[in-house]
Amino acid sequence: MAGAGGEGEAPALRAVRRCLVAFPAEARELGLMESVPYLDSLLSPLEFYREWVCPNKPCIIRNAFGHWPALKKWTLTYLRKVAGSKMVSVAVTPNGYADAVYQDRFVMPEERHMLFSNFLDIVEKKVISPSVFYVQKQCSNLTEEFPELLGDVEPEVPWMSEALGKKPDAVNFWLGESAAVTSLHKDHYENLYCVISGEKHFLLHPPSDRPFIPYELYLPATYCISEDGSFQVVDEKAADKVPWIPLDPLNPDLEQYPEYAQARPLRCTVKAGEMLYLPSLWFHHVQQSHGCIAVNYWYDMEYDLKYSYYQLLDSLTKAVTLV
Ligand SMILES: O=C(O)CCC(=O)C(=O)O
Q1: Tens of pLDDT, residues 40-65
Q2: Does the keyword section mention Transferase (predicted)?
Q3: Average pLDDT over the chain, rounded to whole?
Q4: 117 alpha carbon to ligand 1 midpoint, in Å?
Q5: In this structure, what are the phi and psi dihedrals at residue 59, rounded to the nearest 5 degrees?
Q6: Which atom number of ligand 1 is nearest to the Cα of residue 191?
Q7: Is the pLDDT of residue 249 over 90?
Q8: Out of 1, 63, 190, 312, which could bridge 299 as a Cys pair, Cβ 3.0 to 4.6 Å?
Q9: Nearest-angstrom CA–CA distance, 172 and 299
């Protein structure tokens, strides 16, 4: 919460600010843990809903998808064989950050359509590029761009579909270089994130940490590669500003965002064969081992009272920040 008020601040505003500063610790005491717990086997849909979705708590589930052929089949060689000859969308950036703040812009990656085999050449370091490549298009790219791989996983997670009474909105396929990083953000999805090979490193904040997490408004722009191979940041035409988190949780600028010192990130590594349940509205920052392959399922959240309470927290945080 930037702009903490001084002596002249109205008492009511000071009281709201005090409540917002106390709120994250109070929420944590009500049942959040120091680390992300593991489940060694699946629960029934009802149990999973009661114990994790409803309380909005993350967990890592082992043995949740041991039956998927992908776990044994998906090597880079296999992926090249079944999908190498097709054109796919790849996020290309100069620094590994797609959808992140760069200087005074919110910058999106160049979305390059390229042969999947050319992308694999880069991941396998058969071709050296100064840019960073990541297959990460979040529009259900597994079903839209890689239908030939779908039979090796599942189009939905049956127990989650039953628990939530709906099908996933998107099934995404992720494969990229270790330099590709996903900046801190949150989504309105119940996310089941399954690592097929390699490792993903998540840094998480519960939604209740919102008062300590800064947002700013940025003009949106896109990386465009020039003929000489250098990247330019090109503004989107007539686009509204985008609220985004400027802070890098791995190296937070506490002079600019001192409140973040009070936030308490949870860190976890999700290994091959493990599934992270990442509840809706949790902030997450993601790194990976080189060539990590993952599939995740986004189930739209319920826009219920929990959502409304988060909106209230967000509005109050913005209100005191602006003063
Ligand atoms: O794996 C990643 O790089 C990002 C995942 C993510 O942000 C998500 O699933 O919402």
Answers
A1: 999 999 999 999 999 999 999 999 99
A2: no
A3: 95
A4: 23
A5: -155, 160
A6: 9
A7: yes
A8: 190
A9: 12
The binding-site residues of ligand 1, defined as CB within 6 angstroms of any ligand atom, are 174, 182, 187, 191, 193, 200, 284, 286, 296
286 to 38, 96, 195, 320: CA distances (angstroms) = 19, 12, 13, 29
Cα–Cα distance between 253 and 318 in angstroms, integer? 19
CATH numbers and ranges of domains, the chain: 11-322 (2.60.120.10)
Which atom of ligand 1 lies nearest, measured to the CA of 189? 10
Given ligand 1 and candidates 140, 193, 290, which is best to mutate, with the most ligand atoms within 8 Å of its CB?
A: 193
Q: How far is the CA of 31 from the centre of ligand 1 (A)?
A: 25
Residue nearest ligand 1's atom 8 by CA: 191
List CB contacts of 52: < 8 A, sequence separation 6 or more: 58, 59, 277, 279
- 238 band by pLDDT with thresholds 50, 70 and 90: confident
Q: What is the pLDDT of residues 159-190, one digit of tens each?
A: 999 999 999 999 999 999 999 999 999 999 99
Strands 87-93 and 110-115: antiparallel
Q: pTM of the entire structure? A: 0.95
Question: What pLDDT score was predicted for residue 1?
Answer: 65
Half-sphere exposure of residue 217: CA atoms within 13 angstroms, side-chain side: 6
How far is it, in rounded angstroms, from Cα 161 to Cα 9?
49
Which of 185, 151, 186 lies closest to 171, judged by CA?
151
Residue type, 62: R
Which atom of ligand 1 lies closest to the CA of 174? Answer: 1
**158 CA from centroid of ligand 1 (Å):** 21
pLDDT band per the 50, 70, 90 thresholds, residue 145: very high
